[in-house]
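Task: sequence design from structure.
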């Protein structure tokens, strides 16, 4: 489970694109969109992330 939080509440906020990059030889690879979140959302949980991984 990976999570994120966003601060504030800007008036012109329309949403978020959530992206992930795989590790390639220890370096971040190409980012790809994995989800979207609506405006005024302050948290996102990714239950599909591999255990014990971070990039």
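Answer:
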């Amino acid at each position: 489970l990976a999570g994120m939080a966003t601060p504030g509440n800007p008036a012109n906020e329309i949403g978020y694109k959530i992206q992930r990059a795989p590790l390639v030889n220890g370096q971040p690879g190409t980012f790809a969109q994995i989800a979207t979140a609506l405006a005024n959302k302050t948290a996102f949980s990714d239950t599909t992330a591999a255990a014990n991984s971070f990039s």
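The radius of gyration is 13 Å.
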